[in-house]
Amino acid sequence: MLIHVVTRGELTRGNIWLTLAQRYRVNLEELIQINDLPDPDRLVIGQAILVPTPYVHIVQPGDTLWSLAQHYQTTVDAIAKENQIADPSLIYPGQILHLPRPPIEVNGYLMSMGQQGQKIVQELGGALTYVTNYSYEVQPDGSLKNIDDEPVITEARRQGVLPLMCITNTVEGRFDSNIARDVLNNEGVQNHLIDNVMERLRTKGYGGLNVNFEYVYPDDRLAYNQFLQRLSKRINPDGFMLSTAIAPKVRADQPGLLYEAHDYPVHGEFNDFTVVMTYEWGWSGGPPWAIAPLTEVRKVLDYAVTAIPNQKILMGVPTYGRDWPLPYVSGETRATTINYRGALQRAIRYGAEISYHPEYQAPYFRYTDEEGKEHEVWYEDARSIAAKLETVKQYGLRGVSYWQITIPFKQNWALLQSRFTILKRLKTE
Fold first, then answer.
1. Which end of the chain is more exposed for a tag (fewer CB within 10 A), N or C?
2. Rounded mean pLDDT of 114-124?
3. Does 199 share its domain with 308?
C-alpha cells in the first residue's frame, strides 16, 4: 500500500480520485472504498489517502538483497523466495521486487457484545489472531459480572480467531483500586475468582485470559505478582493462555498509581504475552496532544524490551482521536473522543488543513466552530499507523493490540494486512 497526501493544487484540478486511480493504476471504486471517507467528493489539504498497491520495492542502482533485507527488517532468503530469485546476486535497477510480509499476532479489544460484536468480528476476522472481550468486571466477593459474549465467541472461532476472556477491576467501566485490593489480599476471594474464571474459560469456549487490572495500589504490587503466578499455574496446564495489559512505563521505578504495581519482569515471566498500553498521552482531561506520539511510544518500548522478551510484547495501538476545545484549562477542559471519520468530517465541515507532526508521527489540525470557538484535533491515519507498524518490526515485537476494534478504521486494517501475515492460533471452524 502507498500513502498519498492531498495537496492544495490537487483540489483545484478536477476529479482527484480519477487522477489518483490513473496515476497509480488502481481500481477507482476500490480506492474510494478502502479509505472509508465521510464524503468522497470533499477532501481537505493534508489528508492521507491509502492507495491499494502491492507491497513492492523498485530496485535502485547499488541495491542488493542484503541491503534491502536490512532496510525492510527481513532476510535475503525471504525476499528471494517471495520473488523466485535463484541467484540473490542477480537483481537489476528497475526490477520490481515483492516484499515478504513478516508474521505477527494481532489482538483487538472488543467492547460490543451480542450481535453487534459478532458482526465486527465477522468483518475483521482475517486481520485478527485474538479478540479480547471487554470485560468481565470482578466483584468484591470474587464473582464476575456476566456479559453476552457467546455470539462473539462463536463467530471468532468460525473466523479462526482465538477468543480471550478479559477481567477488570472496574465498576460500571471505571477502574477501582479497592476492587483489586479485595481480590489480591484475600485468599478466599481470590480462590473464588479463579474458580469462576476457570469455569467460564471451559464452558464458553475461550482460549485464554487477559487480566486488565489498572490503578492497583503500589502496596499491592507483590500481591498482584503472586496472583499472576497462581493464575498461570491454574490456566496453563489446561491449555489456556494468560496475558495482561500493563501501563506504559519508561523505567522500573516510575512513580504514580497507574504504574507502580505493574512489574514488567514478572508479567514477562508468567504471561504468554503482555499488551503494553502505548496510548492515552493525549487523554480527555489533559492538554491537546497525539494519542500515541511515537517519541513516547519508543521510550516505553526501549524499557519494555529490557524487562520482557520482545516476542512476548504486543504494542498497543489506538483507533481513535480527540477534539479539544481551546484554550485548554487544566481541570476544566474535556476533549471529545472521535474516530477517523469523525476527524475528517470536522476538517471538511470547517475547511481545516491537516498537518502532520514529524516527531510524534500523527496528524492534527485546528478549526473554529460556528460559535467562534477554536478546537484542536489529534487522530490516527494511514501515515501514523504505518509508522507504528514499522516500529513493531524495528523492535522485533510479537505484534500489536488495538484499543479498540469497536471503533471503525478501514485504513488501518487494509494497511496492516498489506504489510504483515496475520498469524492464526485456530483453524477455521
1. C
2. 97
3. yes
Residue type, 169: N
- With 0-12 / 13-18 / 19 or more C-beta atoms within 10 angstroms meaning exposed / middle / buried, residue 48 is buried
Cis peptide before 135 (omega within 30 of 0): yes
Beta strands in 329-426 (DSSP E): 336-338, 355-357, 362-368, 374-378, 399-403, 421-422
On whether the CB atoms of residues 209 and 197 are closer than 8 A, the answer is yes
DSSP of 271-300: -SEEEE----SS-TTS-S--SS-HHHHHHH
Taking only the tens place, the pLDDT of each residue in 139-181 is 999 999 999 999 999 999 999 999 999 999 999 999 999 999 9
Range of the structural domain that residue 90 is part of: 56-98
Q: Which of 98, 129, 155 is the last residue of a domain?
A: 98
The CATH number of whichever domain residue 15 belongs to comes to 3.10.350.10
CA distance 233 to 215: 25
CA distance 394 to 71: 10
The residues annotated as belonging to the active site are 214
State how far the alpha carbon of 120 is from the alpha carbons of 108, 138, 156, 405, 411, in Å: 11, 25, 10, 8, 15
CA-CA-CA-CA torsion for 79, 84, 89, 92, nearest 10 degrees?
-90
Three-class secondary structure assignment of 60-114 = CCCCCHHHHHHHCCCCHHHHHHHHCCCCCCCCCCCCEEECCCCEEEEEEEECCCH
- Predicted pLDDT at 37: 86
Cα Rg, the chain, nearest whole Å: 23
Structural domains in the chain (count): 3
Q: What is the pLDDT of residues 196-238, one digit of tens each?
A: 999 999 999 999 999 999 999 999 999 999 999 999 999 999 9
End-to-end CA distance of the chain: 30
| pTM score | 0.94
- Residue 402 phi, psi dihedral angles, 5° rounding: -95, 130
Whether 428 maps to a domain, the answer reads: no
Please, what is the Cα angle at 203 between 156 and 272, to 5 degrees? 60
Is residue 366 assigned to a domain?
Answer: no
